[in-house]
């Protein structure tokens, strides 16, 4: 099944725009900019900014929930039910503490790993069996910081981290067409290969 819904996770509002927790929003913003005539618009019934675009010859919904991270499922569930999109046709893009900046990975299913956005989406979809694109933001302990994780994700990346995250987002964008064609093995191999 090809991907029909790409969800970028983040928190709405200018105070969160540049924070690590908004890596999913960043990818969707970049993706929208590559699609002719595609523009995110407020969709009240889905509690989100949403757009419909053509990727790899198929129609794909792009979504940025405006519910705050821990209520993301409210938005994802509403759109998926309305358009009859199955969980395995959903790709959720989110920040990942367990990956270093500059790394992004694709996987299907698995636990939420403490990520409140994923927890809420799993509850709304009734399954963990949806695709995730994990954008590495690093962990405070890896940079010898005593900063609490909740505080860390709600701060801007350092300049050198931002450059690595931007590179990972760019690389991630190149595999989106493969995912929208249902070529998950090819997309995973391409993204997970260091070039």
From TrEMBL:
Its EC number is 3.1.1.29. GO terms for molecular function: peptidyl-tRNA hydrolase activity. It comes from the Bacteria. The keyword tRNA-binding applies. Keywords: Cytoplasm, Hydrolase, RNA-binding, tRNA-binding. It holds the Pfam family Pept_tRNA_hydro. The record marks 95 as: Stabilizes the basic form of H active site to accept a proton. The record marks 11 as: Discriminates between blocked and unblocked aminoacyl-tRNA. This is Peptidyl-tRNA hydrolase. It comes from Undibacterium arcticum.
């Amino acid at each position: 099944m090809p991907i029909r819904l790409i969800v970028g996770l983040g928190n709405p509002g200018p105070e969160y725009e540049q924070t690590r927790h908004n890596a999913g929003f960043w990818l969707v913003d970049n993706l929208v900019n590559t699609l002719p005539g595609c523009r995110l618009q407020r969709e009240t019934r889905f509690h989100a900014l949403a757009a419909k675009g053509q990727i790899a010859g198929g129609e794909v919904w792009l979504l940025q929930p405006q519910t705050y991270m821990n209520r993301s499922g409210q938005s994802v569930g509403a759109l998926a039910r309305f358009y009859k999109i199955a969980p395995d046709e959903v790709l959720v893009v989110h920040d990942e503490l367990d990956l270093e900046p500059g790394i992004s990975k694709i996987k299907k299913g698995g636990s939420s790993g403490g990520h409140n956005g994923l927890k809420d989406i799993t509850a709304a979809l009734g399954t963990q069996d949806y695709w995730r694109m994990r954008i590495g933001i690093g962990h405070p302990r890896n940079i010898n910081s005593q900063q609490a994780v909740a505080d860390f994700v709600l701060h801007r990346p350092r300049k050198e981290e931002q450059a690595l995250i931007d590179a990972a987002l760019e690389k991630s964008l190149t595999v989106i067409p493969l995912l929208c064609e249902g070529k998950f093995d090819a997309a995973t191999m391409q993204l997970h290969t260091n070039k």
